[in-house]
Amino acid sequence: MTSVGSTALSARTGSDAWLQRDAARLRYRCEGSGANAIVFVHGWTLDLDMWEPQVAAFQSDYRVIRWDRRGSGFSIGRPSLDLDVGDAMALCGHLGVQRAVFVGMSQGARVVCGLAALAPGLVAGVVLDGAPDLRPDGSLTLQDMPLGRYRQLIATQGLDAFRAEWSQHPLARLRSGDTDAQRLVSTMLSRYSGADLAGDAPQPDHAPQSGDAPRLGDESQPGDASRPGNATRSDALLAALTMPALILNGEFDVQSRLDAGAALARALPHSHRVIVPHAGHLANLDNPMDYNRALRDFLTHHAVLSH
Q: Residue 199, CB half-sphere, CA atoms under 13 Å: how many?
């Protein structure tokens, strides 16, 4: 099994920057100096530091951009998948990025799809890594996590009790025994605010962002925002993915996510699917060598970054 290695996970002190958005303050990093950009969107309870092995691998050839979504890492703001899409657009505008490949891990894949629907000219290609079932009325990943149990746990025993239980879930647990990777995942979880699971978590906005923008769902449903009754399963969400797409899963990802990846690959006409060996749901940390190889192949042969 490939080790992440301490070099790839070493802290880059002094590289944090901040973007103010309405009532939110977002931590981000922009590294590398290439002509083309990759924007990484992290999954639930994680933050931008999950992408350290990818920054190390790609910053010599690309601008590598990542941020802490609201309620995660060091960012402050009301957790919302719809607001995450706006944050991604604002960050790209702030950094002068006109076109990029967007990599969305797990819940972050939903943000990437929303971005493709709202600003298709910005999106040269998408990578959907361990994504939930994004198809209209898809139900493959509805039972992935006991969210009611987690809310109750936070309400009765506190956030640390939730963190301890969630850390043992297959969607949150590394298969790799690499101590640096284990420490990184633990550190990211310790920063997660729990705002989207708290009893006073805000309900989803009901006003659309624009006339044709698909709703991404209830931010109070973190693992898979697609729940019956939510306006999550818009045909526009997948219909917008006309650009090249890479569908990634770890070999040992949970079966529902493997099934969702296969279904997405069938649903998207311009997609390519890769199974990362010796990896679970956190494939980029379990096996960064093969993960990075798949991503580089996609960037080189499929995504068209330049106009």
A: 7
Does 262 score more than 50 pLDDT? yes
**What is the model's pLDDT at position 65?**
97
**Which spans in 32-143 are helix H?**
52-58, 81-95, 107-118
Spell out a b/e string for 271-288, using b for 16 or more CB atoms within 10 Å of the CB, else e: bbbbbbbbbbbbbbbbbb
For the chain, the farthest-separated pair of C-alpha atoms sits apart, in whole angstroms, at 54
What integer pLDDT is reported at residue 33 of this predicted model? 84
Name residues whose C-beta falls within 8 Å of residue 84's C-beta, 6 or more positions apart in sequence.
41, 69, 70, 111, 114
**pLDDT surpassing 70 at residue 224:** no
Strand partners, 273: 247
Which token pair is 259? 């099934």
At 199, which helix (H) or strand (E)? none
- Amino acid identity, residue 60? S
**pLDDT at position 240:** 78
3-class DSSP state for residue 148?
Answer: helix
pLDDT score of 235: 57
Contact 67, 47 (CB under 8 A): no
In Å, how far are 84, 103, 134, 197, 206 from 257, measured between CA atoms?
22, 16, 11, 22, 29
Give the residue-averaged pLDDT of 139-166: 94
pLDDT of residue 138: 83
Return d(Cα 200, Cα 203) in angstroms, integer: 9
The token pair that represents 125 in the structure block: 């290609």
Residue type at 232?
T
pLDDT above 60 for 243: yes
Cβ neighbours, 10 Å, residue 212 = 11
**Cα-based torsion angle of the residue sequence 209, 101, 48, 114 in order, rounded to the nearest 10 degrees:** 20
DSSP, collapsed to helix, strand or coil, labels residue 67 as: strand
Class of domain 17-301: alpha beta
Q: Give pLDDT, residue 241.
A: 86
